[in-house]
Amino acid sequence: GYHQAVKENRQLYNTLQELRGNIRVFCRIRPIFNEEGKCTIDYIGNDGSLMVIDPFKPQNTCKIFQFNKVFGPTATQDEVYKDTQALIRSVMDGYNVCIFAYGQTGSGKTHTMCGPSNGSSKDIGINYMALNDLFQISSIREDNRTLEIRSCSNNVWLSLPDANMHLVQSTADVLNLMKLGEKNRTFGSTAMNHRSSRSHSVLTVHVHGKDISGGAIHSCLHLVDLAGSERVDKSEATGDRLKEAQHINKSLSCLGDVITALAQKNSHIPYRNSKLTQLLQNSLGGNAKMLMFAHVSPEADSYGETISTLKFAQRASTVELGAAHLNKESSEIRELKEQIDGLKNALAIKE
Ligand code: ADP
Ligand code: MG
User: Fold this and answer.
1) Of 49, 88, 91, 101, which alpha carbon lies 20 to 30 A from 298's?
2) Which residues form the Kinesin motor domain (predicted)?
3) What pLDDT is recorded for position 332?
4) Relative to the alpha carbon of 29, which ligand is closest?
5) Which residue's CA is the nearest one to ligand 1's atom 10?
């Protein structure tokens, strides 16, 4: 009886995820660095909700957002990874998976994906934990799965053929590759932040293997540290820098358009509008699984960017797609629950 119930729960959970179109959105709030600065995050619920307060309005207007999960400033890398692990492991079962870090410069994207900026190996990021996991699973299964890594830190001025493909044997190999990629990544300083990175970094892992019945598996995992999403002020960026910034903002909005189209189950998905979405096409949509980390800085002077990041992320999340969709979900879920109840009753009678 117990195992059956667990199995049914699992089925219900999977169905719920299917109904959500395999897009999940996690929000991560980094710690506040400026002690005197006001904090814009007013409340974090453990149900994935979040309340943001406008620090400049005397009456302090609130905005509420809902995501699949919210990680507060004290959340550790391990906690974040724990909620990502199942998704990453599903790559070994043949699913294409895409994980994005989105947010303004300085909000913690690289911290989540790679680890702290001081290079400390204590708080390693998702990239390393994921690779470690995949290597471990492939060695336990002893079924000749190989991992192929494509590390591509392309400046927007360069084209994709610059991406390199490497066969790797251990997480250490990957670490070295990532370091090289990070070196190649160009940093342009803006008035906002000198570490500002004006490029996307994409780490792709290809998995080749066989499933239990001997069928070929070829899946891939994209780990994407996106360029900063902040709007550019024309007075602060000129010439090539401004063009570059506009180009980046365009590729981010194209990504948003693709995710929204997928979330709304549109028949036309505008993959071809940017290189980024073309590159990731096989892992966006279909039965691919997607996770977006929306990163926000809690400081008052980031309020505008925080709201725009949360709105972008909300748009990507089917959970809030409006009444029609939600109703459809709830009626389907209700039906499933009824089915499960029926099965449980049938089981109880047998026992
Ligand atoms: P981004 O990649 O979005 O520009 P970073 O990841 O470089 O931002 O983060 C900016 C700074 O804040 C870095 O020094 C980083 O180590 C630190 N940081 C970001 N997120 C956290 C966190 N959750 N805990 C501790 N430090 C963080
Ligand atoms: Mg970064």
Assistant:
1) 88
2) 22-319
3) 62
4) 1
5) 106
**What letters, b where the CB count within 10 A reaches 16 and e where it falls short, cover 99-134?**
bbbbbbbbbbbbbbbbbeeeeeeeebbbbbbbbebb
**Ligand number with the minimum distance to the CA of 153:** 2
Q: What is the mean pLDDT of residues 19-47?
A: 82
pLDDT at residue 250 above 80?
A: yes
| Measured distance CA(21)–CA(17) in Å, rounded | 7
User: How far is residue 47 from each of residues 27, 43, 254, measured CA to CA in Å?
Assistant: 12, 12, 29
Single pTM value for the model:
0.78
Q: Report how far residue 106's alpha carbon sits from residue 234's, in angstroms, rounded to the nearest whole number.
A: 20
The 10s digit of each residue's pLDDT in 156-189 is: 222 334 455 666 667 677 767 666 666 655 443 3
Please report the atom of ligand 1 found closest to the CA of residue 104.
3
Q: What is the mean predicted confidence (pLDDT) over 100-128?
A: 88
- For the CA of 116, the nearest atom of ligand 1: 16
Task: Name which residue leads in pLDDT, 157 or 293.
Answer: 293
